[in-house]
């Protein structure tokens, strides 16, 4: 085992490591949520390493495998373990870049195999039942109808919906300007029902919700602030429970509407490259999950319909 420099405790070495990682993440413009997640994951590992008397220089791939095995034994999902290992890979990469380590022990560690759970997708009839259930007769219901019509019409993430401004909607061009992941802007077409719902909301409801602090935010809470992603999820759950013919067993969420948007496009002949651009995926491999959805649907149709299936 490599020993720490004279006068430096195990805890001192880890404090320096976490500080260097935080500084590097800030310099690279990482989002606050990302920095917080890395700090939580790093802090958890540091407590484990300190408890075993391990300095940063003493960490080996074998030690990391022991740590990952412990996470799995504690019931952590493969996706969670993979995320935590990615955080550690970043931590040790920082130490290598700063000359604290010669090599990154996490580079030799493979991530746990993730499950192949397919995204939850609503049928077109379920989407229609959900949206038509929102009455649009009060300021909040007008807002919700516009919000979820747009979510499905353009396949937007919850994070993208809440960052929209009134100026983001281009009525003449029938499209919306979206600030996606990594601060990348994309232009997404949207349908007439969504545009009509947004126009009604802006004309009849938004003025009643707006305050001087609302600025140009499109979707406002009853107190006039910009909606949060938790607001969006909560309001969708409310309407999903009330909609007849909509199964909530799979978890109706803004992302389920996004998955439904992509799957319905694929069902009706859209190509994967177009869907990739509409969703704002950096890689086509991310979009290819929808071919698995389509394949699963076809297998089910075959099994239920073919006389010798």
Residues in helices, as a percent range: 55-70%
User: End-to-end distance, in Å?
Assistant: 60 Å
Instruction: Identify low-pLDDT runs.
Output: 1-7
Global Rg: 24 Å
Number of helices: 13
Strand order, largest beta sheet: 1-2-3
How many separate domains? 2
CATH homologous superfamily descriptor of the largest domain: Intergrase catalytic core
CATH class of the largest domain: Mainly Alpha
- What is the molecular shape? elongated
Amount of beta strand: under 5%
Tell me the total number of β-strands: 3
Helix and strand string, N-terminal first? HHHHHHHEEEHHHHHH
- Fill in the CATH topology of the largest domain: hpI Integrase, Chain A
CATH architecture assignment name of the largest domain: Orthogonal Bundle
Mean pLDDT: 85
The largest sheet is: 3 strands, antiparallel
Strand and helix layout:
Blueprint: H1 10-27, H2 32-51, H3 61-73, H4 78-97, H5 124-133, H6 139-154, H7 158-162, E1 169-170, E2 175-179, E3 185-189, H8 192-209, H9 229-242, H10 254-267, H11 272-279, H12 284-287, H13 289-305
Antiparallel strand pairs: 1-2, 2-3
Helix pairs in contact: 1-2, 1-4, 2-4, 6-8, 6-10, 10-13
């Amino acid at each position: 085992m490599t020993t720490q420099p004279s006068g430096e405790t195990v805890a001192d070495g880890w404090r320096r490591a976490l500080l260097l990682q935080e500084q590097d993440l800030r310099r690279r413009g990482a989002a606050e949520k990302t920095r917080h997640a890395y700090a939580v994951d790093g802090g958890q590992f540091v407590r484990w390493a300190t408890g075993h008397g391990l300095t940063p220089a003493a960490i080996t791939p074998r030690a990391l495998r022991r740590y990952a095995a412990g996470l799995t034994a504690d019931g952590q999902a493969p996706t969670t373990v993979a995320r935590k290992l990615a955080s550690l890979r970043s931590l040790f990469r920082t130490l290598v870049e700063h000359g604290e380590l010669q090599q990154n022990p996490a580079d030799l560690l493979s991530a746990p195999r993730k499950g192949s759970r397919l995204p939850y997708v609503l049928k077109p009839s379920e989407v229609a039942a959900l949206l038509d259930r929102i009455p649009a007769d009060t300021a909040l219901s007008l807002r919700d109808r516009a919000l979820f019509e747009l979510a499905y019409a353009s396949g937007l993430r919850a994070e993208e919906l809440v960052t929209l401004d009134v100026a983001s909607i281009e009525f003449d061009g029938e499209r919306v300007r979206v600030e996606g992941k990594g601060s990348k802007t994309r232009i997404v077409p949207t349908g007439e029902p969504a545009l009509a719902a947004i126009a009604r909301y802006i004309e009849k409801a938004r003025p009643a919700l707006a305050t001087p602090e609302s600025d140009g935010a499109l979707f406002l809470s009853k107190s006039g602030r910009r909606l949060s992603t938790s607001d969006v999820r909560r309001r969708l759950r409310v309407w999903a429970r009330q909609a007849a013919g909509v199964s909530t067993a799979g978890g109706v969420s803004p992302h389920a509407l996004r998955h439904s948007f992509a799957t319905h496009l694929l069902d009706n002949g859209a190509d994967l490259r177009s869907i990739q651009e509409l969703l704002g995926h950096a890689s086509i491999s991310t979009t290819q999950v929808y071919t698995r959805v389509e394949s699963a649907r076809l297998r089910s149709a075959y099994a239920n319909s073919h006389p010798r299936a």
